[in-house]
Input
Amino acid sequence: MNAFALGGNKIEIAPRPTFACNIRKHSFRRNDSVILAQLATFAPHSVSLAMFQDAAAPDFSLLGLLGNMGWPARIIALILFIMSIWSLAVMIDRYLYFSAARKQSREFAPKVAGALKDSKLEEAIKIADRSKKSHLAEVVTAGLQEFRSSQGVVSEETIESSKRALERAEAIVHAKLKRGLGVLATIGSTAPFVGLLGTVIGILNAFQQIATQKSSGIGAVAGGISEALVTTAFGLLVAIPAVMTFNYFSGRVEAFDVEMDNSSSELVDYFIKQSHKR
Output
C-alpha cells in the first residue's frame, strides 16, 4: 500500500489488483477456447445435416427419374420401349398361332385317320383343307395330294415323290412355326447391353455434373444416377420375358416337329400298304 502527504493529511492508496485482472483475462481466454471447440464440434453436424437435406431433395419416383434423365438416356429408353412392344406382339402372335395349331390338329388327326382307314382319300384331303391352321394338316395335305396325282398307279416312284412332298411341307411349316422367334432371341440378347449403354451414359453424366457444380452431394448426381438406374432396369425388364418366351416357344416348335415327323412316317407306311394291296 502506498502513502503520501497532501495538505498535512496522509493519504493511503490501495495497490492495483493485478492478480485479479490476470485471473479474469485467463477466464476470458478459456471461454473463447471453449466456444471455438463447441463450434468445431457442431460444424461437422451442420455439414452432414446439409448433405442430408441435399440428399432428400432429389425425387426418385418413376416420374422423377424420367424427368431427371437427359436426352441420350431418353432415346435409349425409347429404343427399349419399342423393343418391348415388338417382343410383346411376337409373344401374342405365336401364342395364338400355336394354340390354334394344337386345337385343330387334335381335331384333325382322328378324322383323317378314320378316312384313310376306310380308303377315302378324297374325304381325307377335304378334311385336311378345312384345318387351315393345323401344322399336321398342312403336311398331310401335301403328301395326299402328291399321292393322288399318281392316278391310281402306286409305285416306288410315287411313294418317293410323296415322301419328298412331305419333307418339303415339313420344312415350310417349320419355318412358319419359327417365325418371330428370331426377334425374341435378338431382343433377349441385346436389350441388357442397350440398358448397359444407358448406364454408362448416366455415370458419365454424373461425373460431369460433379465437375460442373463443384459438389459431391447426391443432388449433383441425381440426373446421372436416374439415367443409370432406369435404363439398366428397363433393359432387364425387356430381356428377361423375351428370353423366357423364346425358350418356351422353341420347345413347342420341337414338339410340333416331332408330331409332323410321326405323321409323315405313318402316312408313308399307309402309302406302302396301299401299294401292296394293288
Summary: The two ends are 157 Å apart (CA to CA). The mean pLDDT is 77. The first helix runs from residue 18 to 56. DSSP finds eight helices and two strands in the chain.
